[in-house]
Amino acid sequence: MAFGIVDYIVFGTMLSISASIGVYYRFTGGKQKTTQEYMLGNKNQSLIPVAFSLMASFMSAISLFGGSAENYSRGTQFAAINIGYILGTPIIAYIFLPVFFKLGNLSVYEYLEKRFGKLTRIVTSLAFSVQMILYMSIVLYAPALALEAVTGLSQVLSILLVGLVCVFYSTIGGIKAVIITDLFQSLLMFASIYAVIGVAMYETGGISEIWRIAKENDRIEFTNFNIDPTERHSVFSLVFGGMFTYLSLYAINQTQVQRYLTMKDYRTAVKSLWISLPILSLLSLSTCFSGLAIYSKYYKCDPVKSGRIASEDQLMPLYVLDTMGNIPGLTGLFVAGIFSSALSSVSPVLNSLAAVTMEDYIKPLQRREISDTKKVYCMKIIVLCYGGVCILLAFLAKYFGSILQTSLIILGVIGGPVLAVFTLGVLVPCVNQNGALSGLIIGLIFSFVLGFGGPKPVIKNLPTSTNSCTVLNETIFRQHSLFKEPEDGYIYLYRISYLYYIILGFIMTFIVGLIVSAIFRNSKSVNNPDLFTPFIAKKLNKRGLFFKENSIIMKLRQNEDISRGSITGSQNF
Fold first, then answer.
1. How far, in Å, CA of 29 to CA of 550, rounded?
2. Phi-psi label, residue 154: left if phi above 0, alpha if psi -120 to 50, beta otherwise
3. In the 8-state DSSP scheme, what is residue 254?
């Protein structure tokens, strides 16, 4: 069915509102002329918009398409990842955030220079830049799948459309525009997901019927407690892998830390984090359920096997086309929501990449201090450049495979070692520059080999049916029927679940950091309490006071001994 006039109006209105928010903040207030306003929103941003922005930054079309496809093809076990988010939130709020707020640096990686030296800072910020550029390419590619399926626009035009709109309002409106558009786009994301669920409820007869169909076809699973590391999804891999991924994104990632710093104080930032948690979990669980909703329509005729679509990531766009194409405006609302999920992920990352580039790469090379006006102008140019790079790489994303798993691998192989370095920094005073840098480099090499080496086993799906299909693409159907996965021959390391990559990278970096620091103790130790989490800082302060008191006592005793020696000597004389 065609994308109707009403759908185009709804979709066009969404893009116009997102762009106009950037225009509004460009010509109001301080007009984005200072770093404080452009990058930190004058540190007076409201609680609820920031909470939604924290949620939206990494809940993209990848999560919407990938999450629904995961539950459709392999069951509901993936929903357990939300437990990891709950466990990770207090660690972020009370271990990492106090340190970053006390220092107040625009670039979170400036902390690493103070703790472990300039080279550690540069290597880590470069790793962040590579990670986010690769991730953004997939984020831009995902909505192109929807627009191509629903409207008939080519993937090239779709990627250019979402990329250019996003770069436009991010460049001119700064972080204020990013946060407010994130709020608006979050509401559209929820609307698109609940449109899918609502239509499925109407067609099947309610939630209970959707659940019954899923249960009868073995899609309901929450209690896989298999401890085997090669088990792709179990409670252990999802909870612990999810927690480490959540920590790497929400505790030490420039994109999120920059949002915390737009708040007036530490307590408000912690509140925004706690408020974002239920919003994140609600959208995540709703996305999981939308996979079951889609399955209730196609459980007798799988569109991937029958050849209607090329991959499972196109399931949700196909469902919208089949069920909402005759309802004016509803398809447009869905596409708007999908595009919003991409915009709300790309725009904050572009903003944070600009901040890191200015603070970590350009500023240290300048002999003279750059004026604030010139600095803002440079960062706007940087946003444009990064936007162009991400758009170009998005054209290659179709070769990456499953968008959900690929995105988590990219976040994991770099996020694990970087998280370990920050953890060593805030928790372990005895770790020095030699240890942190060695651990980071070895951890990154190990993680890249683990994540991108291969070959790896093909993902196993639950059984699907084509018994009720009226039309089959015989070529594709025959390929699916004849395909058999080799039972053996994979190296054990490459059979480990992708969710453990971030944990293994973390452990490797952490252990190497401790060992090298113990061997090379000649590095300058750091005893500044501000660089450590509160309970470690408290211990350091007590230790420092103890040493200070001891040194004073020793000096008093030395002076007393000297004076006594003088008296004794004079008496002997």
1. 55
2. beta
3. H
CB 31 within 8 A of CB 368: no
pLDDT value at 185 more than 90: no
Instruction: Please state, in angstroms and rounded to a whole number, the distance separating the CA atoms of residues 115 and 436.
Output: 10
Residue 312 DSSP code: G
Most confident segment among 368-377, 463-472, 497-506: 497-506
User: What DSSP string runs through 186-248?
Assistant: HHHHHHHHHHHHHHHHHHHTSHHHHHHHHHHTT----------TT-SS-HHHHHHHHHHHHHH
Q: Which H or E run contains 441?
A: helix 433-452
Helices (H), 432-533: 433-452, 474-482, 492-495, 501-519
Closest CA to 292 of 65, 465, 69, 64: 69
| Nearest-angstrom CA–CA distance, 298 and 464 | 9
**What is the C-alpha separation between 476 and 303, in angstroms, rounded?**
11
Q: Report the predicted TM-score, pTM, of the whole model to 2 decimal places.
A: 0.86
254 contacts 40 by C-beta, under 8 angstroms: no
Exposure string of 139-149, with b = 16+ CB inside 10 Å and e = fewer, is bbbbbbbbbbb
Q: What is the CATH number of domain 5-393?
A: 1.20.1730.10
Is 53 in contact with 178 (CB distance < 8 Å)? yes
* pLDDT the model gives residue 367: 73
Helix (H, G, I), strand (E, B), or coil: what is residue 107? Answer: coil
Q: What is the DSSP letter of 30?
A: T
pLDDT value of position 549: 44
CA distance 573 to 220: 98
pLDDT value at 454 more than 90: no
pLDDT surpasses 90 at 465: no
Domain boundaries, the chain: 5-393, 533-573
Other CB atoms closer than 10 Å to residue 565's CB: what's the count? 10
User: What's the CA gap between 149 and 171, in Å, rounded?
Assistant: 30
Give the whole-angstrom CA distance, residue 96 versus residue 106: 15
Reported as half-sphere exposure (CB side, CA atoms, 13 A), residue 552 has a value of: 6
Q: What angle do CA 498, 502, 508 make, to 5 degrees?
A: 120
Phi, psi of 391 (to 5 degrees): -65, -40
Nearest to 35 by CA among 380, 495, 420: 380
Q: Residue 463 pLDDT more than 70? A: yes
Largest CA-CA distance found in the chain, in angstroms, rounded? 120
Which residues have C-beta within 8 Å of that of residue 428, sequence separation ≥ 6?
Answer: 513, 514
Gap between the Cα atoms of 465 and 49, Å rounded: 44
Q: Is the predicted pLDDT of residue 10 greater than 60, yes or no?
A: yes
**Cis peptide leading into 303, omega within 30 of 0?**
no
pLDDT at residue 277 in the model: 94
What confidence tier does 524 reach under pLDDT thresholds 50, 70, 90?
low
